[in-house]
Amino acid sequence: MRILSVVGARPNFMKLAPVDRELVKRGAEHVIVHTGQHYDPEMSNAFFEELWIPAPDHHLGVGSGTHAQQTAGVMQRLEPILGQRRPDVVLVYGDVNSTLAAALVAAKLGLRVGHVEAGLRSGDWTMPEEINRVVTDRLSDLLFMPSRDAGDNLVAEGIPADRLHFVGNVMIDTLCWALPQAVALDAPARQGVAGRPYAVVTLHRPSNVDDPSVLRELLEALGRLAERVAVRFAVHPRTRARIDTLGFRPAGEADLRLVEPLGYLEMLGLVAGAHLVVTDSGGLQEETTFLGVPCLTVRANTERPITCTHGTNRLVLPRRDVILAAAERAIARRSPARPVIERWDGRAAARIAEVLCDGASLDETPVAAVPRARQASAFAAALSER
Ligand code: UD1
Predict the structure, then answer these.
(1) CA 175 to ligand 1 centroid distance, Å
(2) Of 28, 89, 287, 346, which one's alpha carbon is 20 to 30 angstroms from that of 209?
(3) C-alpha 38 – ligand 1 centre gap (Å)
(4) Strand 276-279 with 2-7, pairing
(5) pLDDT of 123-139, one tens digit each?
């Protein structure tokens, strides 16, 4: 059995790590291709090292560019490798440009495509990730879903039920594997917040950082929040460039530090001890839910509604007053009990490997247990932080 995984951007790497371990454990040949979409050491190499992912067998060196350039670059450079390796299955992860590009090439070569983290939908067609998700799922033969609502979405789009496998969340596999090491790093002390309440921030979506007036409003909100609790903002490279252009400086009394992107373990350790997370990341919505840390997601929608309906996540608009009021409420309502979500149990990658290597079928109950009407009302509640 030869499986070839294609990854390219930061959120792909933590999804790959547990799948690689499980495939190798079962004796499968696992070829890893890195597209090079992310290339800064702290956005790429650091994750391979910390998560014990073997060095990629192929590196495509695609780098940054417009969406078309990036997607086309991956496609052109991947095609000969797939032709030469002829894997039994090509695995793609998440919703980044590398995911879509790889799925397109593999499908056109007649190779079977497996999509890890299939079926998530925000319904927001302005997000490049939504286009990547929908098209990748349409091209996939094996759809590995993190939650039951994903099955509901896929069935509604006419994807045959026998392609669906409700395996659980591979991000949580990695979290469970890494948490003891992450806590041992003592990230709060390294970031100067040990023993104090603090918030962790990440923001990189175009909708939040590309418009200078939105970005300024967000930075002012963080500055005000930092008068109440310490704030550590791990700044993505695209956000850094835009903040530099704005020339933002926090007020003197605010404990707001803008730091470089953090490695996986340091970020996890910091988040695990936080009173609050403010983010637009997909993965952090899930990680905070699993850890029971309140999370404000600065977006109008989410492809991960289960983190709002069953977890600690709330959606907020990018407005200073909204964020500050929601932050107060979130800190106050923190519960000591961690949410429990079905199959977010550290065994998702093992289930994927069972499907791939042993022909297991995990499609027994593909349709979401949560009816759409209930999802919609939960969405309305989540959006009430407006
Ligand atoms: C990509 C994903 C997004 C994911 C995010 C996580 C797409 C469409 N978007 O967004 O879903 O949440 O990764 O980080 O695939 N840059 C660097 N160094 C790097 C990588 C990027 O400086 O190692 C800068 C470059 O200026 C680049 C910009 O960041 O143009 C954007 O990078 P890109 O890979 O296009 O998208 P992300 O914003 O990282």
Answers:
(1) 22
(2) 287
(3) 6
(4) unpaired
(5) 999 999 999 999 999 99
